[in-house]
């Protein structure tokens, strides 16, 4: 992507947080009355410094990981498996809440402009999440002016709002408008200030997005990514500071019926078209921010599944080349969270800060270890920046976790703990199954089958029983299913082999024992892996003919179906028996961790005649 496109697309999550971050901070400070609101400027200045520090530290991450350095990758590489999983838990919590919070804030922008819709906020939000699900399952991608427009419109709208407000304030000598009388319900102390700081710091969510997507930039990728990140941080600080300044000058306080940004827009633009455009731009950029999670959440699940910490079904791409299973899981989780918290942004914020800054902390701590090990040119400077980012992020994480624990942060902490336990159990299960499936020295021989009618050690196998390519079989005669005796049925057994393991060997042995032609079929995600499998096959002895299909999008069932359909079209006289190795776990809870290809093949191939699907179970 060009920088002008990458900036709005990858910055939507971070910049849109201006719509709810300042308000979340003010909603806490207002409990302290006028004295509490007076603390908004120094707290905002501290958050702006935090934005700058974390942004500079992520510039170092981009330089060190030019192929993309998400929190899970950085933490796993430098801190180990468990910290990497904890970072992944924080990321996934962040993405789920990005959808819930962005939709809640976007709906609030709509209901602020059209108050009559306020009672339908939850159904509207659920409907928007359903639209995001449908769009992403159809393979929508963030690209071009269509996705850049909402972010640029939001930036222009907020800058216009601040500019008009400052001009108006200049006319009165920058004297703040008196705020409504407030009855303080809490004293202004350390607890109130730290809670407000933790809530306002949610305006930083999404800062890591550019470091995740470095390969998407035009060359030189890392340099363009760093430039784009610098612009994003500058815009974020300017928008955040400008919003807080206008809140102080206009005497705006948070309310339940109208968002702070909507109140500021009313002060600057009245109720005319500019106000409507501001609210529309706010809702649109928040919708785009929610959609960014639909790109990142399935990608993290893919990385986890690749490392065997998540079910293998998350490796698969759907028909539209999207990680459909991850998209569906994100939708379910975000909808449950959104409905459980009644679609209220203020209720969701305490959960949000924990996941965001947990991932920040571990990512930057991992970078400290990275620079300490590498010690290349300028490593001390990079280490200092990342150490500063890690320290500040850790402070915010601990502050949010402790001060907002009873307000909902406990849910995020519990989710992280459960995630860690589940992913470790999944990894342990896959390792156990891997040991059970591993070939032993006597498992690599497969005798050539012979017909029972030709017994004896000197009997030569007939052409009908020797393993051979299906193209070497007799010519096709008819497609009609009119075979009424065993002698009239012409067989071919096709055995899909994912790996050279005991489950695959058992399926091949079973197919060969039927004394019919056998063809092994391997689906590989890339040519290098396909060549590696061919070498394994040759090492095994090349006992049976092998066909390798390269499926670059990691789909398994669709390439199998297409190959069998083509085979059937070429040889309609054959009865093709697809013999699928199937791993059967003794405990039900582990069954979802293994793909069930046979039922999907039966469903896809049911319209074709003379296709038989059977499984050879391997119990673990």
Automatic annotation (TrEMBL):
Keywords for the protein's UniProt record, in alphabetical order: Membrane, Transmembrane, Transmembrane helix
Domain of life: Bacteria
Biased composition (Low complexity): 456-472
InterPro entries named among the record's database cross-references: AA/rel_permease1, APC_K+_Transporter
Major subcellular site: membrane
Residue ranges, annotated region (Disordered): 448-488
Localization per record: Membrane
Any Pfam family hit: AA_permease_2
Membrane topology, from the record: Multi-pass membrane protein
Transmembrane segments: 26-54, 95-115, 121-137, 144-167, 187-207, 228-247, 274-294, 321-341, 347-371, 383-402, 408-426
Protein name: APC family permease
Organism: Streptomyces yunnanensis
């Amino acid at each position: 992507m060009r920088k002008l496109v990458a900036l709005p697309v990858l910055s939507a999550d971070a910049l849109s947080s201006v719509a709810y971050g300042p308000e979340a901070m003010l909603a806490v400070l207002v409990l302290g009355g006028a004295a509490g609101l007076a603390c908004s400027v120094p707290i905002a200045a501290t958050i702006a410094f935090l934005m700058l520090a974390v942004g500079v530290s992520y510039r170092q991450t981009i330089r060190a990981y030019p192929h993309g350095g998400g929190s899970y990758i950085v933490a796993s590489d430098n801190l180990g498996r468990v910290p990497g999983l904890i970072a992944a838990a924080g990321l996934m919590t962040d993405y789920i809440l990005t959808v819930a919070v962005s939709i809640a804030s976007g709906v609030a922008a709509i209901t602020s402009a059209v108050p009559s819709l306020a009672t339908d906020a939850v159904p509207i939000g659920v409907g928007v999440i359903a639209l995001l699900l449908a769009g992403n399952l159809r393979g929508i991608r963030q690209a071009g002016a269509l996705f850049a427009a909402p972010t640029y419109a939001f930036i222009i709208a907020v800058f216009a709002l601040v500019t008009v407000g400052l001009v108006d304030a200049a006319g009165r000598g920058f004297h703040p408008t008196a705020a409504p009388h407030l009855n303080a319900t809490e004293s202004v102390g350390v607890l109130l200030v730290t809670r407000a700081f933790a809530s306002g710091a949610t305006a930083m969510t999404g800062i890591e997005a550019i470091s995740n997507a470095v390969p998407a930039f035009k060359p030189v990728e890392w340099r363009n990514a760093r430039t784009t990140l610098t612009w994003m941080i500058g815009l974020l600080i300017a928008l955040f500071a400008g919003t807080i300044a206008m809140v102080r000058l206009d005497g705006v306080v948070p309310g339940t019926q109208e968002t702070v940004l909507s109140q500021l827009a009313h002060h600057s633009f009245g109720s005319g078209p500019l106000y409507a455009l501001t609210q529309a731009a706010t809702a649109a950029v928040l919708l785009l921010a929610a959609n960014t999670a639909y790109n990142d959440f399935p990608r993290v699940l893919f990385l986890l599944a690749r490392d065997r910490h998540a079910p293998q079904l998350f490796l698969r791409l759907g028909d539209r080349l999207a990680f459909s299973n991850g998209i569906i899981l994100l939708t379910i989780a975000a909808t449950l969270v959104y409905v459980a918290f009644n679609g209220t942004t203020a209720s969701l914020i305490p959960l949000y800060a924990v996941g965001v800054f947990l991932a920040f902390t571990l990512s930057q701590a991992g970078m400290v270890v990275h620079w300490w090990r590498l010690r290349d040119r300028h490593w001390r400077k990079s280490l200092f920046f990342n150490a500063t980012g890690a320290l500040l992020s850790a402070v915010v994480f601990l502050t949010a976790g402790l001060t907002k624990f009873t307000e909902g942060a406990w849910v995020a902490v519990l989710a992280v703990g459960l995630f860690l336990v589940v992913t470790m159990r999944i990894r342990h299960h896959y390792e156990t199954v891997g040991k059970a499936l591993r070939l032993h020295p006597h498992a690599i021989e497969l005798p050539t089958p012979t017909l029972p009618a030709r017994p004896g050690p000197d009997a030569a196998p007939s052409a009908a029983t020797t393993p051979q390519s299906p193209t070497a079989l007799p010519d096709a005669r008819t497609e009609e299913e009119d075979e009424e005796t065993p002698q009239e049925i012409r067989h071919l057994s096709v055995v899909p082999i994912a790996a050279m393991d005991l489950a695959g060997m058992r399926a091949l042995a079973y197919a060969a024992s039927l004394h019919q032609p056998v063809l092994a079929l391997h689906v590989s995600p890339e040519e290098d892996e396909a060549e590696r499998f061919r070498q394994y096959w040759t090492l095994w002895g090349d006992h049976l003919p092998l066909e390798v299909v390269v499926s670059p999008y990691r789909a398994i069932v669709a390439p199998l179906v297409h190959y069998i359909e083509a085979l059937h079209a070429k040889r309609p006289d054959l009865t093709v028996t697809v013999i699928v190795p199937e791993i059967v776990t003794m405990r039900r809870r582990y069954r979802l961790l293994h793909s069930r290809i046979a039922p999907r093949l039966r469903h896809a191939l049911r319209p074709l005649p003379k296709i038989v699907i059977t499984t050879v179970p391997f119990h673990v």
